[in-house]
């Protein structure tokens, strides 16, 4: 009988929300972005701009990409993709850029967003893992 009580407790304490970001899970979460975004050496523009060095970068980072007015104006006003802003954008793009044109429904679980941002944070502007 005891083991039926202990097992759920163990699972609770091993839950990702309480642990450090999990880069493997972050990489898996990035699969939701991959149709439109690339990272890594030589990452190219797809439907969306490449995301190398995006954590901490200014909005509308990639020269030549046709951004929405929201992201362009944000970049010109000096807004940056700090972790909190990126988190809000990934949770619900329209909440951060109401007339933006990223066609993405958002990632609801906070732990998944934390893992994903930690995964993205590894890539510097040249696409190298730092
Ligand atoms: C269906 C295509 C699509 C998907 C899926 C998608 N994006 Fe985007 N993303 C875009 C487009 C298009 C833009 C440009 C938006 C604009 O100009 O408003 C963009 C913009 C961005 C930007 C701003 C880049 C900059 O240079 O300022 C970030 C950050 C971003 N996306 C992250 C993500 C992440 C992380 C995911 C996965 C959770 C994701 N996107 C999923 C298409 C997509």
Task: Output the keywords.
130 residues, mainly alpha, Cytochrome Bc1 Complex, Chain D, domain 2, 6 helices, 40% helix, binds heme C
How would you describe this structure to a colleague?
With 130 residues, this protein is mainly alpha-helical. The chain has 6 helices and no strands. The model has no long low-confidence stretch (mean pLDDT 91). 40% of the residues lie in helices and 0% in strands. It has one domain (20-121): Orthogonal Bundle (Cytochrome Bc1 Complex, Chain D, domain 2), CATH 1.10.760. Helix 4 (83-91) packs across helix 6. The protein starts with a helix and ends in a 9-residue tail after the last helix. It has helices spanning 2-13, 23-29, 69-76, 83-91, 93-96, 110-121. Heme C is lined by residues 32-33, 35-37, 47-49, 51, 54, 59-62, 67-68, 70-71, 81, 86, 90, 97, 100-104, 107.
What's the CATH C level? Mainly Alpha
The rounded Rg comes to: 17 Å
Mean pLDDT: 91
Strand portion:
under 5%
The portion of residues assigned to helices is 40-55%
Identify the CATH homologous superfamily.
Cytochrome c-like domain
Which cofactors or ions or other ligands sit in this model?
A: heme C
Low-confidence stretches: none
Query: What order do the helices and strands follow?
Result: HHHHHH
Q: What is the CATH architecture assignment?
A: Orthogonal Bundle
The computed structural class is: mainly alpha
Shape: globular
């Amino acid at each position: 009988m005891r083991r039926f009580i202990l097992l759920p407790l163990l699972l609770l304490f091993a839950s990702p929300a309480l642990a450090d970001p999990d880069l493997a899970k972050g990489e898996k979460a990035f699969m939701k972005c991959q149709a439109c975004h690339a990272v890594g050496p030589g990452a190219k523009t797809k439907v969306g701009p490449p995301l190398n060095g995006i954590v901490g970068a200014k909005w509308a980072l990639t020269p030549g990409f046709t951004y929405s007015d929201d992201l362009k104006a944000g970049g010109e006003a000096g807004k940056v993709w700090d972790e909190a802003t990126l988190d809000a954008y990934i949770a619900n793009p329209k909440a951060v850029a109401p007339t933006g044109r990223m066609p993405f429904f958002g990632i609801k679980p906070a732990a998944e967003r934390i893992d994903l941002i930690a995964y993205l944070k590894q890539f510097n502007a040249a696409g190298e893992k730092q």
